[in-house]
Protein: Glutamate decarboxylase
Amino acid sequence: MPLKHPDYGAPSDLDDHPDLLVNPVFSREPLRVPRHALPRDQMDPDTAYQIVHDELMLDGNARLNLATFVSTWAEPQALRLMGECAEKNMIDKDEYPQTAELETRCVHMLARLWHAPDPRQVVGCSTTGSSEAAMLAGLALKRRWRNRRRAEGRPADRPNLVMGINVQICWEKFANYFDVEPRYVPMEGDRYHLSPRAAVELCDENTVGVVAVLGSTFDGSYEPVAELATALDHLHRRTGWDIPIHVDGASGGMVAPFLDPDVTWDFRLPRVASINTSGHKFGLVMPGVGWALWRDTQALPDDLVFHVNYLGGDMPTFALNFSRPGAQVVAQYYTFLRLGLDGYRRVQQTCRDVATRLALRIAELGPFRLITDGTELPVFAFTLREGQEGTTVYDVSCALRERGWLVPAYSFPANRTDLHVLRIVVRNGFSHDLADLLVADLRRALPRLERQGRPHRGEDAGGFAHGAETKNPRSPGHH
Structure:
């Protein structure tokens, strides 16, 4: 006969977890808190804090999360400013004009960083992240194409967007949400991103633009934006199709300007109409802030801009969101001031140094083969060498998780679904010392993995890709 607790019922009742049961050591009431309904009464703030705090201990350690590109460390002064601005509504530019001014200054700083021909003509805005920024850029491409087609008296009902299959999942969402046919350039052999030749072959008169990724989430590599621009220039002269480029610089837009100034990818190329980046990735701000910039007003059709005055004053706005805190924008401005060109260069160079050294040490362990080595984004991917039949990258990922490391394992998309990799993102705050600890834990796990004789975990083992998700092969434009 099962034991029955006098207060909480039979063990089978507890198995359903209807309530949160608070340890009486807190010496506060209540001891039972509903899990999925509002409590009937209010409670002491310290009790509420402790309940939430204790549950959140089950989350992974953000500093050991080598899957995410998102910043997990910030200076206390930046956090203090964010706390001071948490209640400021970014959309209310009349009530918080100085916050709006800081947003404008950030846009001007990015315009100069990305070599706009005339930074005063650049239009841009902050967003909740690079995904929203990508949506806005895609909308501008579609609307610009549609307006031109209608002015020419041609049909404008079959837009398509060309991109590598390695693009972040937000581009598939854009195509789905806004009725644009996605045309994906597949991976081939050792080419893991878009090829200019293959991209041009997918273009036609209905192509609203081509997306080039500066820093692929799959392996950290830069796509050849300048070569793509040249190929589209040739296409324009041959066919008359004037197809713009959008650069998804979610990560690389805040790395290449400081570490690779000779790589031409930005507004120096006349065919680049717009660029987005994540302030909360290598922009070094806590989530979530992104940026979208257009080279001039002609690249952003005015009929996409709304003028709102009910909050006081005339506020032109281009966004998918409305209300959001100004804290992250203020933190971005603080970080720009705090680091400057030299500070960003030093931070990003340190990240790259850690990434390249860590990649080399992992390769020296023996069982692994590098796909990339961190010499572009401070990100690299690696896989198991041939002959490692007794284990999988998913086994390796799970073994590292036992020590708290979150290292994603995933397969590449078409036409390299046979390739299964692990990926490591080195962010600000991930030091050489932490990298040494990771290598030590990996070395410690390898003998056990080699002894297991057969793989224990496959692709269905709860692996996580963090931006490297496989695109939907049923998309009508999948090539």
